[in-house]
Amino acid sequence: VNGGTDCAACTIIVSLIDQLSLVYSESIDQAMQRLCGYLPDQYNTVCKEFIYVAGPIIVDLLANGESPDAVCHALTFCTTDPPNPPCKLYPQPRGGLEAGIKRSKLRAMKYTSNLRELLVN
Amino acid sequence: SDICNMLPGLKQICEMIEGKLNNHEPVLDIDKDGFSIIDSLRGSSWRGKDCDDSRAAVHPGARPVDWDRYEDSNCNGIYGVDPVSGKPYEQLFCGDSKPMGVGLLGDSAGAHFHIPAEWVTPTVMGLDMFANITFVAGNELDWPSMSGTTGYQNLTWPTVHGWTDSAYLRLRQRNLCNHRDYQNIAVNGGDSGNTNDNAKSLSRNQTSDYPMILFYSLIGNDVCNGHPDTIEHMTTPEVMKANVIDTLAYLDTVLPAGSALIMTGLADGRVLWKYMNSRYHPLGELRGDVTYADLYAYLMCLQVSPCNGWMSSNETLRNFTSERAAALSKVLQDLASTRTYKNYKIHYMDFALHTVIDEWVAQGGKPWDLIEPVDGFHPSQISQALTAAYTWTHLMQNFPEVLGKENPHNEQIRQLFGDQGGH
After folding, report:
1. DSSP output for B234-264
2. Which residues in chain A touch residue B125, judged by CB atoms under 8 angstroms apart?
3. Tens digit of pLDDT for each residue in B21-61?
């Protein structure tokens, strides 16, 4: 429901990227590279492929203050399956979770080809 | 799965691997005796390491062939002939010692499910923390080699905190002839229903293997699930009774005569909410924005919570879950006192989580040290070790006959055979 474990995994990864950039005072892009760099080689490649596709969206949304929950809705890993309410791990973004999700999805529309590639892969 | 479908030969290999993993059997086991020479993929992390993977008769727990005069047929590292007496060492040192194996039919707690906190804590993350991720994934995120029942190694990885103590280690220390004779048949999600299938992967031959002490320890999944109507999906006492009777009947067909079955009751998981709810989760430590209460609600919302009943802000639901768990424990206790089987005796003991917590706190520890920080649900490494010590003490006090006598030849075995080939 609502993306289940895929949603949870996405939220954790985006949250780690967000926090790494804070801990090391670096850009979101650098934090993503750092996270992939921590992984052994066989995972590093997959990780880099993921950030190649999802990275621009994550950078854009986190830089605009959206929460990891909203980002993962925009990336389509998290969904809102009626009649269930949307799920959130982090505090409500400004204007509430649903507004944050709507805002993030609108913003992510700029990256249609990236989203399509995410869905395919 | 795409790779598997590319070539006809690969497809069969993939299906074989998938079948073995689904049955919780070692993926690499050439002689099909249930024991492996590699550690992960249900290998020696879970069951004693095979010392000859080309002959099924040679495996941990086997009754020795010709007292292992010429070779080590039970992988305990003891073989050869004493030049003074002319008798085989296995006969001299182990003959009267009543060797016993240790086994476990269990769940993720018994398999020791553990996701290192370092993997989700940005302030301490680093290259070293993920070095063993393939091994950990190959063991289903379980760490049976450090578990309280079959653990045998102290790892010095940066993601490991605490020490290893286990029933196997203590039984081995009591009688070194028991070296490598352990089997962890615990499965993530194990409950009284699916344990009937999981038990089929226990490798024990009634005539050619030694007896074993088998723990039946399912501490939560009969009351834990992630369904919104969680109560409807809890096992009822009637179903529990039927499930367990099936398992007990099956075990009488595989356990060698003289074995013992130690049944433990279910945990009282109210400690989870009590000690964790207001604490920060590793993902929320940096900004102070995610507590375990938030995590529990999130997992419940996604319907992926391992236990809606106890990982809930609803006190009535938490109490109900504990009441049902106690009712199911009572079923186990009644069965232990009323059922008799040809090849083994049953003993029951409570899963005394509160006692273990109290003892730890009395030593200056904190209750949350005993709960896995990432999932906020499973027993931690420290908890595994403390529970092992508690269980051993309980068995020594109440059923000492199960554990057998200390082997007076242990020191001689140590001097002659060193670490007995290790694990």
Report:
1. SPPHHHHHHHHHHHHHHHTTTSPTTEEEEEE
2. 16, 20, 35, 38
3. 899 999 999 999 999 999 999 999 999 999 999 999 999 99
